[in-house]
Amino acid sequence: MIDSHQHFWNYDPERDTWITADMSAIQKDFYPDSAHFNSLGIKSCVAVQASSSEEETLFLLALAEQSDFIQGVVGWVDLQQTNIEDRLAYFSQFETLKGFRHIVQAEKDIHFLQRPEFQKGVKALDAFDYTYDLLILPHQLEAGIEFCRGLEQKIVLDHLAKPPIKSGDLKAWKQSFQSFKELDHVYAKISGLVTEADWSTWTSEQMKEVIDIALEVFGADRLMFGTDYPVLKLASDLTTWIKVYQDALSELSQNEQKKINELNCQHFYALD
Question: Does the global pTM surpass 0.90?
Answer without folding.
Answer: yes
